[in-house]
Amino acid sequence: MSGFRPGLLPTLLVLAMLPVLVWLGFWQLERGEQKRDLLARQEARQQAAPLSPEQIESSAQPAFSRVHLQGRFDAEHSFLLDSRTRDGQVGVELLQPFHDELSDRWVMVNRGWIPWPDRRVPPAFDTPAQPLKLAAWIYVPPGKPFIFSHRTAEGWPRLINHVDIEAMWQQAGREGVIHELRLEPGPSAYRADWAITSMRPSQHLGYAVQWFAMAAALLALFIYFGVHQAREKHSDNDESNPCRP
C-alpha cells in the first residue's frame, strides 16, 4: 500500500498495545456489570424478610441477608480488626461474640469502626451489659484476603489483621455461625457506614471510556504516522528523480 507506510517498529507497538487497551475497556465494562448485579442483590436481600441465626447456615447464598438478633454480647472476648481507615484516619473494627437467646446460637457481630490515633493507648469502646435487640446483615468476603502473617496477638481484646471466623471461635472457646454479621447503624453500633463496593458501576464505565479513548487515539496516531511517512517517502522519491514528470 503506497499511501500507508507506518514502519515495522510502530506496527509492532500498535499490535502489542491496541488489543490490551481494548481488553481493558471491556474488562471495566464487565466489572461495572458485576457491581450492578452485586448492588441489586444487596438491595433485594435487604428488602427480604430477615433470617434467624439457625437459617444462616442452611442458606445457599446468605450474603447481604438481614438478620434479627436478641441477646447479649460477650464482653470478655473482643476482636479488633487492625488497619481500617475512614476519611483518612486509621482505626479498628470491633467484632464481638453475641449470644442469640431465641435460637441459642452464637454469632460474630462487627459493631463498626473505632478511631485509634495513638497506638500507645488501647482503643476505647464499651460493651452493653443488658439484653439487646439488634439488626445486622451477613457479610461474605468476595475472596480470600492477602495475609502478611498468620500470627495472632495474645490477651483480650485481641488484635487481628484479618477476619477468620472459624479461628476466632476457636480462640474465644465457643462454637458459632461461620459468617461475619455487620451491625446496622443504631445505639449499639460504632461507625457502621459499610461500603458494599470500593467503586460504583459508573466509575467502571468512566474507566472503560478512558481505555477505549486511548485505543482510538493510538489507532489514529498510527494511521496518521503511516500516511505521513508514505507522503515523505513519496516526496523524497520525487526530489531524487528530477526527470520524473
Task: Give the helices and strands, then pairings.
Blueprint: H1 8-47, H2 53-56, E1 66-73, E2 79-86, E3 89-100, E4 105-115, E5 132-139, E6 158-160, H3 165-172, E7 180-183, H4 201-240
Parallel strand pairs: 2-6, 4-7
Antiparallel strand pairs: 1-3, 1-5, 2-3, 3-4, 5-7
What does this structure look like?
The protein is α+β, with helices and mostly antiparallel strands and 245 residues long. It has two domains: 8-38 and 202-240; 48-183, no CATH class. It is built from four helices and seven strands. It has helices at 8-47, 53-56, 165-172, 201-240, and strands at 66-73, 79-86, 89-100, 105-115, 132-139, 158-160, 180-183. It has a five-stranded mixed beta barrel with strand order 1-3-4-7-5. Helix 1 runs antiparallel to helix 4 (201-240). The mean pLDDT is 84.
**How many structural domains?**
2
Spatial order of strands in the largest sheet: 1-3-4-7-5
Count of DSSP H/I helices: 4
DSSP helix fraction: 25-40%
From the alpha carbons, calculate the radius of gyration and give it in angstroms. 29 Å
